[in-house]
Design goal:
By secondary structure, the chain is of the alpha/beta class. It has six helices and twelve strands. The chain has one domain: Ribonuclease Z/Hydroxyacylglutathione hydrolase-like (Metallo-beta-lactamase, Chain A, 4-Layer Sandwich), CATH 3.60.15.10. A hairpin with a 2-residue loop joins strand 7 and strand 8. The structure holds fe (ii) ion (FE2).
Length: 236
């Protein structure tokens, strides 16, 4: 049986995840953040202290410093699971689109979904849950204006959304950010892919030029220190 723990980190609106295989007592930590290690530790204890086989990132974050290097070291995972496209300087277990990671008997399929960043992965867990990172939010998508070529990133995001549209609409989606603190109008912490396909504003736009306008107008202020945070997270 697969269990997915969603950990909303205080009032930050950011979410970390733990994928847990009860049968084999194995776990993977996804998107952990500095200052919130205790949330992860407590949840692992609640789950009966499974062996942490993998430490996984959806992408290089710009709004919060990662504690993946710390957990990777602590649990001796031999590097962080990240897209092979990441310019991360630390030790990684590089992924390609379509790779399968086994957490005990739980299948985690890598979906390379660039756009928000050039190194973004979504993770499809046992064909039941989709960890969407900062690709797909509830009612919105992740911003593309934190570095890089905005037009290129907007087009990549557009294509990534078209890929997600082809998946089972019954999938439950679990994003990296939820709620008003991230200018997301829904207070829900997860959604169903079919619901997003029908109602998510960004997913209704089927023209790349129109999408680019959407992706570059009316976004909230950029996170404090975002350039430094990107650098720090790349250094590991
Ligand atoms: Fe992000």
């Amino acid at each position: 049986m697969t269990k997915l723990s969603q950990l909303i980190l205080g009032d930050t609106g950011c979410a970390s995840y733990i994928i847990f295989c009860e049968k084999r007592n194995k776990a993977a930590i996804v998107d952990s953040f500095l200052g919130f290690e205790e949330n992860i530790e407590k949840e692992l204890m609640k789950l009966g202290s499974p062996t942490v086989e993998y430490v996984i990132d959806t992408h290089n974050h710009a709004d919060r410093r990662s504690s993946s290097p710390l957990f990777s070291k602590k649990h001796n995972t031999g590097g962080i699971v990240k897209s092979s496209k990441t310019p991360y300087k630390g030790q990684i277990k590089p992924t390609e689109d379509g790779d399968i990671i086994l957490v005990g008997e739980v299948q985690v399929e890598v979906m390379f979904t660039p756009g928000h960043t050039p190194d973004h992965n979504c993770y499809l867990v046992d064909n039941e849950y989709l960890l969407t990172g900062d690709c797909l939010f509830i009612g919105d998508v992740g911003r593309i204006d934190l570095g890089g070529d905005y037009r290129k990133k907007s087009d990549l995001m557009f294509d990534s959304l078209r890929r997600l549209e082809k998946l089972d609409p019954n999938l439950r989606i679990y994003p990296n950010h939820v709620g008003a603190v991230h200018a997301i109008s829904s207070e829900a912490t997860y959604s169903q892919l079919g619901h997003e396909i029908e109602t998510n504003e960004a997913m209704q736009i089927k023209d790349k030029d129109e999408f680019f306008t959407y992706m570059t107008e009316g976004w909230p202020p950029k996170p404090d220190d975002w350039e430094q945070i990107i650098q720090d997270n790349l250094n590991g």
